[in-house]
Amino acid sequence: MVELACGLKELGHKVTICCLNSLGPLANEAASRGTEVVCLNKKSKYDIRVIFKLIRLLRQRNIDVLQTFLFGADLWGRLAGRLVGVKVLLTSNRSGGIHYEKKELWFERMLWPLADGIISNTNIGRIRLTQFIGIPENKTYFVPNGYNLDKFNALSERGAVRRELNLKNDCFLAVITGSIKPVKNHQMLVKAAAMAIEKKKNIFFLVVGQGVAEKEIRELVKESGLMNNFRFLGQRLDVPNLLAASNVGLLTSKWEGFSNSILEYMATGLPVVATDVGGVRDLITPDKTGYLVPSDDAPAMAQKLLELFNDPIKSRAMGQAGKEWVQANCDFMQLARKTENIYREIYNLKANKK
Fold first, then answer.
1. Which DSSP symbol is given to 9?
2. pLDDT tens digits for 280-296?
3. H or E element at residue 347
4. What confidence tens digit (pLDDT) does each residue in 3-32 have?
5. Which helix H or strand E contains 301, and what residues bound it?
6. Do 266 and 283 form a contact (C-beta atoms < 8 A)?
7. What long-range pairs does 161-164 form, CB within 8 A, spacing at least 24?
8. Is 135 found in the same domain as 154?
9. Domain interval for residue 240
């Protein structure tokens, strides 16, 4: 959302980001890049008072286009937007609704007609909006995430990062980033790592992130006798540098929408080995920018890791192809232009009906 807001601002639009609950770290990034950020301090999930604050904000800022992200914003934003009469009202859905609770799904099916359209960041998510929620296909749009790719250009020297982590320059380093929670299936990572390390002792693994399953995964690594080959780094602010020090990026999720982790791997020039789930196929071209393996198939992931270990020329070629694809398709200004085109399309359609 921050990248979209900043991109739209560069295209000449006046943009305001409204946080319903509280300000997070991304609010500071948006503000530092010149985008206005407002917080409404919603007290609970169904705090109805927030709708009056939102109506006031929409009127004060004379908002023409309202786009919402996540369930709470979708719920209150659609109601407030229609009451105020914004010219274009869009919501965003990342999973097609398959993770909604029953009450959330009921609200979604009741209230989606208030919006002019819904944007998904994956093709599979767009399809599920129709199949799972019942939204007509002509009301759905696919726009992949965009990224400020500049942060992946000025990176630290690989050796410095490896020295910090007590790793040799000639080791083969695999990295996985993101929350450590059940859906991310780090158990598969540990199983694949054990199989790969059995063949090649010089393979090491970085686990970047935190989450509710972290203790369990650490214990599994310890029980498997793999602690010397793993580095648990927690939350890091220097992820691009960690990726630049690595040889391959991994994803083991049971479900994934648009994977920012994969996008970051590819932007850094890493080949990717990922589970073939959700929107992953929107990012990876099999055998060109990476490998896809079945969900929970640790032997297949270990095999692909070893293939990349044994063929550094192919590994580098895949990484370069992925980097070029990201630069051509996922720059944040492309996100902004594609989204702006949807705004204009909806505005013109509504204007022609009057």
1. H
2. 988 999 999 999 999 99
3. helix 332-353
4. 888 888 989 999 999 988 888 777 777 888
5. helix 298-310
6. yes
7. 161/241, 161/242, 161/244, 161/245, 162/245
8. no
9. 149-329
